[in-house]
Design a protein that fits this description.
The chain is of the alpha+beta class. It has 8 helices and 7 strands. It has a 4-stranded mixed beta sheet with strand order 6-5-4-7. The chain has a 3-stranded antiparallel beta sheet with strand order 1-3-2.
Length: about 180
């Protein structure tokens, strides 16, 4: 598998709205790239199983294939870049990241993310409700996190600090309901 800069830009576009459907023409316009080149790259990503393509009339609508490990890996790479950028401009978050590393040794943390400048930590059971490193924190169970996803609170506005694969598993598990909500 050979992934180029435009492939990453395409996946990055979808990472801003995980449930989006875009035509190849829309992708080309949003990325300000020529249609034939984007069409070739999208076809490659479809062939790799990273994107799905659905024919509706004369348009081909594309979406992420969250069931594909390559797709999740690419989304994870994008999240790592977003996390690193956020850590540079929000130093307090660096301490939080280190604290989470310590807490992972003591309890099962599925994933941790920042959404609307609030830390959300997904755990088995809630035993604490305090800020972490001075950042407002919300500890939620897997079921409560699913509700947050379906409410749309974290699906678009988030930066994953830990557990990106698990985050995308949660999204994949709620994908059908999320798509129905957007329809």
């Amino acid at each position: 598998m050979i992934i180029g800069t435009v492939d990453i830009e395409i996946i990055e576009l979808f990472s801003q709205n995980l449930m989006a459907f875009y035509s190849i023409n829309q992708i080309a316009k949003l990325l300000k790239k020529k249609y034939p080149y984007v069409n070739r790259r999208v076809s490659y990503l479809v062939k790799q199983g990273i994107l799905r393509k659905r024919v509706i009339g004369s348009s081909h609508l594309c979406s992420l294939n969250l069931a594909n490990d390559k797709c999740v890996m690419m989304l994870g790479m994008i999240e790592v870049d977003k996390r690193d950028s956020l850590l540079k401009i929000w130093p307090k978050l660096q301490k939080v990241s280190a604290l989470l590393g310590e807490k992972k040794k003591l309890r099962n943390i599925y994933c941790a993310l920042v959404s609307s400048r609030k830390l959300i930590v997904v755990v088995d059971e809630i035993t604490e409700k305090r800020s972490v490193g001075g950042i407002e924190s919300l500890y939620v169970t897997r079921e409560q996190f699913r509700t947050l996803l379906l409410d749309g609170d974290v699906i678009e506005d988030h930066v994953i600090l830990y557990g990106f694969e698990v985050f995308y598993e949660f999204v994949k598990g709620a994908e059908k309901e999320l798509r129905n909500l957007l329809a």
